[in-house]
């Protein structure tokens, strides 16, 4: 799974209808489609050229590099997603294709271990000369993640060995020793990937290299300036003023050493990728200063700069954070990839801290912003996930240029689709966290997982219709009795959880947001957790002006929204009175199998249809209107129309 | 006055404390300051180089052109403002300075009449080769306006003759005849200026040339494309993608012939400048198709795309219109120059139509967006006039890059300060409109004006404390009785106007929004118009989502706003109950002499200070708070802080 290595988790398979459906979609639709895209076989999409770049770099084809400078990472993310699929279900044809890609990647590797098709094909003399802008280490990181995942899924070492040779090369090039480059990447990713590689191989140099990249970051004089000067001031990018990516250190979280940073800032994906690596390393090293930085920056992100959907990065400019309590709904960025990265960061915080709050945020991002990134048919994707859209305004107002009213088939910068695919394929790895004091159940997802703790092998079989229903049944699978603590997360959205063991009520012992059960377990023990899911209103912090006077709805982990298709245009006229009953109803059509929400709301229509402004306006006509809310993740599956998460409190 | 030529208006002097104070500010502060700026003598401001460019072009100094490609227009606008000041009050020192500038301008004129320092100094071979982007005709237009105004103010012909030689040159270069360029300007301005030059000189060729520029606009194949190809695809600008100004025809209102255009679109200043010229010509020519276009486009602008302040152009991108009912408050553009241009368009519509609604909009723009463009001390200016500011958010969110929390001293692109200065200096010319059927009083401004209608010379002396008080006294000045119709505008904000003639109530005969008085006037006749000014709430159109559920306040022509300095931070928490009394109070400090507004409002503060989101939020604590509103034009005169025009209706 992205960045997670849990030696105690031996095997996991998901059976829940919700997630096994999504995983089937990734297997049957997304991964095959992305394969076509990587090979430029999708007629209406921008060509990717990603596989072609490897072919050319491997000497198997003539041509030039084309695509984004980080195009290689799309191939790596595809391989990583394939690995997770293969881990769950053998698929000889898919594995053969992946093996061919891996042979291609290996053939593109240079004799010294270097591997990047852009620089190999276009600028071999410029390797490592522009870390601020050029993504070599970012691409390396994605390759390492793929190599680890493929090895763990198939036992095959080819890609892992390619990765080790590349990592050895990087280790030889970077560091504080004489003759080495004292640089670090513009886009973090290699840090968390090196730690995965370390855990897969036991090679301490990879952990040390990750530590070097994290500690070196933000030191002065700034490496980005040093290398910029060495390049004679040449910049790779040409937008926003040529060298803004070099100058704006905060964009890359390089304005200060990590342990001195106080606020989540800059590019949101860079931030969460860096923090995922930092939290992983803080735990491995027992590094108190890094841990404090992770706690502080997590808090600033999640308590001041996170959308109710779990989206982060409120502005299109630099795909970045803004400031505390500034979360515009209609011009939000809230990139799908940042949601994936938030989950990666949260998972590592769970491993380090064992606090349920991290799982609450992880679940929020998963079920809302990450899932919203993909259409229900798996064929189209959002890069940007706004909380309010008005298509007629978006067409003419360029403040919305980054926001799309419907999902797109593919992107020139195609980071999000494969990131969502690998996240869904690897979801099993986010369900449990095995810590010294307990085995934590962080997410409720039907399936079977096997663990080995203190030399005992045992399994847990979850059955649940989550996220639609809050009843979770967990059966203990083992050959003999064993002792361990099980910690079942009590989600923040659930006011009255109830727990039974073998049909007997168990009083809740709550620790750090988990129901704690420390006992001797016998084969066949059955836990039943009841998490009632009433539809709940959410209110926002007093300083969050974009949600002032407004409410959002949530049921279980799902945030809901209004769509024009159900409620008519001009959603800003709708209000939800404080006493309106919020009624779950069964969806149909594209929402078949889902729970929707209905309520008696109001449409407040000012009187007077023609004038733009009128004096002494009479009170708005408030007429009752039955409102219908759909899960936010499922919006925009019925064509173009208005959408809104926050609506006026009545 | 900008673009107005009213042969029946012989002389006007303003005495009202409000406007004579502003005109004194323009005379004593703004124009001298701008003179220093044009000469690069303001220490902390970006250098203008505008006068230096003329010196160099005149051969009196060595050096290169510097500044914006339309830098010449700053000198012209300064000269035009000076002309209006001189028309009111002789000032030999100022006139001497202006004469020196005019000599310099004349010396920079080329033998064939051409006059533009950018092309003369930097690219003499490229004259007229890039109308879409390069502002030569725009600068010509501003020069023509200055030449006409200076001639009318001083009787001196030097600049007027420079203008005529330049106009003759343009007439020789452009047109549909053989060997002529079939182009038209990227930035309209020359059209309205040529019509002023026509009215000042009687030269029919100038009117025909204006007609050519208006009629040619938007014809196919597009001139901007033709000249772009002739240039080999070279573009002057380098931002937003190189040639966007060529490609985006709607930006310049060149996507369609004017008479086919349906919506106000593109760059707001270009739009109103073009329409001012078109309305002027439609009236002169009695052109029904152009008149229809003016009516239609005025309606689309004012009834669907105008802020309550009279601001137009809702987005920073292209300083342009968005679409119907999309008027964001915090990221508004609402350029000060667009407010000036709206007044110019409105004035010509008044001349053509005699409908009070045009004066209502003109007054709204004048007292709100235009005046807000300048600080109370005349030393700093807004280019952009938002309706909501939250400085702490603006600092980190680049969606607000174009919005400043306080006025700036000068701008690299310094269009707005001199535009505001010339507007204020020429304000007298917006007060009356002399039409065949009546002499219209469009604005209430204390002062004396003399007219000649049907061979009779007479004057009107207005006394009023407008905009603070709605009592207007008008005395008829004449040597003998005369007959004419007087039409006194009944402002849309006034519900119960009352009119007296020589202390006797007169029943109102209302035509097109004016109180109509057709009679024989005797010297000394006294009209008293009472326009009660209760503070009024304003509500917005049902589709205007950015003002949904909100109210703004207006008293007389002034829109009010809340500032943090009076009301504390987090203005989004404030609400105004429907039954709250709105109480005018006397201002003090920077507001001395002004009427402020107070009301018992509410501050609604959600409970729970820490969490970003909370479930089942209890009702907000609503505590009463005395609210204090200040005139919008006077905001941001006390340092940085939040500001808000629309607040929640209680």
Automatic annotation (TrEMBL), chains A, B:
It holds the Pfam family Glyco_hydro127M. InterPro entries: 6-hairpin_glycosidase_sf (IPR008928), Beta-AFase-like (IPR049174), Beta-AFase-like_GH127_C (IPR049049), Beta-AFase-like_GH127_cat (IPR012878), Beta-AFase-like_GH127_middle (IPR049046). Residues 12-428 form the Non-reducing end beta-L-arabinofuranosidase-like GH127 catalytic domain. Residues 439-533 form the Non-reducing end beta-L-arabinofuranosidase-like GH127 middle domain. One of its GO terms (biological process) is carbohydrate metabolic process. Residues 535-647 form the Non-reducing end beta-L-arabinofuranosidase-like GH127 C-terminal domain. It comes from the Bacteria. PANTHER family: DUF1680 DOMAIN PROTEIN (AFU_ORTHOLOGUE AFUA_1G08910). This is Glycoside hydrolase family 127 protein. It comes from Xanthomonas boreopolis.
């Amino acid at each position: 799974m992205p960045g997670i290595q849990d030696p105690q988790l031996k095997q996991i398979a998901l059976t829940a209808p919700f997630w096994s459906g999504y995983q089937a979609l990734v297997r049957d639709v997304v991964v095959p489609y992305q394969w076509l895209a990587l090979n430029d076989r999708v007629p209406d999409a921008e060509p990717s050229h990603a596989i072609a770049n490897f072919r050319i770099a491997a000497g198997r084809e003539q041509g030039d590099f084309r695509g984004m400078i980080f195009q290689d990472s799309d191939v790596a993310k595809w391989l990583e997603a394939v690995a997770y699929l293969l881990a769950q279900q053998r698929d000889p044809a898919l594995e053969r294709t992946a093996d061919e890609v891996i042979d291609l990647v290996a053939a593109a590797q240079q004799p010294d271990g270097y591997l990047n098709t852009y620089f190999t094909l276009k600028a071999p003399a410029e390797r490592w000369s522009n870390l601020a802008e050029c993504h070599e280490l970012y691409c390396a990181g994605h390759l390492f993640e793929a190599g680890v995942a493929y090895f763990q899924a198939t036992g095959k070492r080819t890609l892992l060995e390619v990765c080790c040779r590349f990592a050895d090369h990087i280790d030889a090039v970077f560091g504080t020793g004489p003759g080495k480059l004292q640089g670090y990447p513009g886009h973090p990713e290699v840090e968390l990937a090196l730690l995965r590689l370390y855990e897969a191989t036991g090679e301490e140099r990879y952990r040390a290299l990750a530590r070097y990249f994290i500690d070196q970051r933000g030191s002065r004089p700034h490496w980005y300036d040093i290398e910029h000067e060495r390049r004679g001031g040449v910049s790779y990018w040409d937008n926003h003023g040529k060298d803004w990516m070099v100058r704006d250190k905060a964009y890359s979280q390089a304005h200060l050493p990590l342990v001195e940073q106080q606020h989540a800032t800059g590019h949101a994906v860079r931030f969460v990728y860096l923090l995922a690596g930092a939290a992983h390393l803080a735990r491995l090293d027992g590094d108190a200063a890094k841990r404090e930085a992770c706690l502080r920056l997590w808090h600033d992100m999640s308590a001041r700069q996170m959308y109710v959907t779990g989206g982060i990065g409120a502005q299109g400019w630099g795909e970045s954070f803004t400031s505390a309590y500034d979360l515009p709904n209609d011009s939000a960025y809230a990139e799908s990839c940042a949601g994936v990265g938030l989950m990666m960061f949260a998972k590592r915080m769970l491993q380090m801290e064992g606090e349920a709050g991290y799982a609450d945020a992880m679940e929020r991002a998963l079920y809302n912003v990450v899932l919203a990134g993909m259409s229900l048919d798996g064929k189209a994707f959002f890069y940007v996930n706004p909380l309010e859209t008005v298509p007629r305004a978006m067409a003419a107002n360029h403040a919305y240029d980054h926001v799309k009213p419907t999902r797109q088939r593919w992107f020139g910068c195609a980071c999000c689709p494969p990131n969502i695919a690998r996240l869904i394929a690897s979801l099993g790895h986010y369900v449990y966290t095995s810590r010294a004091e307990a085995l934590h159940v962080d997410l409720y997802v039907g399936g079977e997982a096997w663990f080995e703790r203190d030399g005992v092998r045992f399994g847990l079989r979850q059955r649940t219709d989550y996220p639609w229903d809050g009843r979770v049944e967990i059966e203990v699978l083992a050959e003999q009795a064993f002792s361990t603590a099980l910690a079942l997360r009590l989600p923040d959205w659930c006011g009255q959880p109830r727990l039974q063991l073998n049909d007997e009520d168990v009083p809740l012992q709550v620790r750090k947001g988990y129901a704690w059960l420390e006992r001797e377990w016998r084969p066949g023990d059955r836990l039943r957790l009841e998490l009632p899911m009433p539809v709940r209103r959410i209110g926002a912090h007093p300083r969050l002006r974009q949600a002032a006077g407004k409410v959002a709805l949530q049921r279980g982990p799902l945030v809901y929204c209004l769509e024009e298709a159900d409620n008519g245009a001009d959603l800003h006229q709708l209000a939800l009175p404080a006493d309106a009953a919020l009624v779950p109803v069964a969806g149909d059509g594209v929402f078949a199998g889902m729970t929707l929400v209905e309520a008696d709301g109001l449409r407040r229509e000012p009187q007077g249809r023609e004038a733009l402004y009128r004096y002494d306006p009479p009170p708005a006509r408030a007429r009752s209107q039955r409102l219908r809310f759909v899960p936010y993740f499922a919006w925009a599956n019925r064509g173009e129309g208005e959408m809104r998460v926050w609506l006026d409190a009545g």
